[in-house]
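Checklist before submission:
- one chain only
- standard amino acids only
- sequence pasted in full

Submission:
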Amino acid sequence: MVNVDGARFVDERQDFSDYIGRVIPSQLDGFAFQVWDAGMVSFLRKEEYNDGVAEKSVARSVEELAEMAERAAEHDTVSADRERV
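Returned file contents:
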């Protein structure tokens, strides 16, 4: 799991159900990304990660994924600014 600066900030060995609820709010804007490689997708719980439950992005490299996240963040910032007006 990485924050908006791309820095890992959790110990993935912890029990996520309780741990994540405490650590994400402490990150910038209370936002974080979970990054999984293709080999792990089949192990993810469908009730937490299925289409329609979690927003997903698929990329061929970490660099491409970072670019996608940056574009999404820019879009979200513009949308949030428009809502405040």
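Reviewer check: The beta strands are 2-3, 32-33.
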